[in-house]
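Continued from yesterday's entry.
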Amino acid sequence: MFELIFKPLNYLSIRWDNGLINKTRFDFIVPLLVTIILSAIMTFLYFKIGTKNSNIFTNDLTYYLICFLQTMPGFYIAALAAISTINSTTMDQPMAGDPPKERYVEHNPYKVFWINMNRRRFLARLFSYLTFISITLFCFLLVIRFSYSLEITIISLPYLVYIVYFFSCVVVIFLLVQLIMMTFLSLYYLGERVHKN
């Protein structure tokens, strides 16, 4: 039963080699590059300036981000409900061109193969994953913001503060960049592609 909680992460196992930026690059490589650059800049500013406001986890930036993330799961769940119940023949057809592929396991006899996904299945997986990461990011930001509000300083290891800060930035920014990019992708499919064959 516990493994069902993490089923929305199955979205990451979908294969889609559509164009120059395939799904793996879109899901991981581009967000990771943006994350490393922004995390390095944020850590450098925090290290050089060293004030409370230079820390993104103690200033208003994360407060507004938490407020934004409070509303996002509701939007994603509403979109997921709409995708699941919409009565459209184009939603149940395989996606045009080189469609995304989903791993399918047959147990009797054991056999693994890849099946083409239709729009409904792809968008359902996408919105499930977006809901999962928005809730995860919301909870992670609450924990990090609370941790920084305690103002615990480690005198013997001053650079540990910056290392923890950098890796916290990496987690937050990576999930945020994924959330933004995938939300824009879902908006394209809901606003544009859903009306085309």
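--- second protein ---
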Amino acid sequence: MKTIFLINDNSAHAKHAAELAYNIACKVQANILIGNIVKTGRVVSVKEKTLIGGNIETTVETTPDLRKHLQNLNTEADSFKPIIGNINLADLSVSDISQLINKHKIWMVVKGTPAKHSLRSESHSANINFVLNKIKCPVLLVPENSVVNDFERMIYMADLRYCQLHVVRFLTEMADPFGANVMVAHLSAKELPNMDREYSHSVFRETICRSIRYDKLFFDNIQERDVRKAVDILINGMSTDLMALVNHQFHFEEVVNGQIEDTLPPYINIPLLIFPN
């Protein structure tokens, strides 16, 4: 059973991300483990048994509002109902959190990002960069101003010559229960020449489509060399619901302005799925 690890700082953007995480969990049939990174109220010691394997001694909130919110959504669900777990991370180092995620083979980490910079979220911005560099699963960053809906189009932006099959496979498996399209959008790396359109489509068919069977898997060769303009084309021109990148590979730094801060750049107004390098 898959497990989605939801980072919670008791903010509005965390709740927004939680609702998307819940929607994904219902579609792909995954459980949800809420990781609370700030303390609210009294905590008690319990044992988590169902979500991450074995018994681990931990502390959980006695008033877990986000957990209650998701459990309320469960009462309204007609199909799969994910198990909602809760764990306190406030006293753990980011290294410990990363080890926990890897040890228990979390399928995806989900974290909300605020629409505006705040002192509250600033203290956690460096943490997510550290976690991204240490864990083995992708991280879904959900902007507070994004619209939470079913996915219809997911795009993986990469130089086709270095396109990673496991990223495409993950996206197609995630997209399938939504009936969503998945597109590999080729954007040549700075130091490399553009690929001829006909040749790039041939490479896509021979290297990607032969390895991954998905009826709604598509390709486009983006000739625009300006990454910002290319991102605008992908998000707004193509009505994309989710964009995927590989951490520290090719266009990543240009898209996120160097590294992940407490907020995403304003031109990224859709969920951003970042895969480990």
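The radius of gyration is 19 Å. The CA atoms of residues 205 and 241 lie 24 Å apart. Will compare against the first tomorrow.
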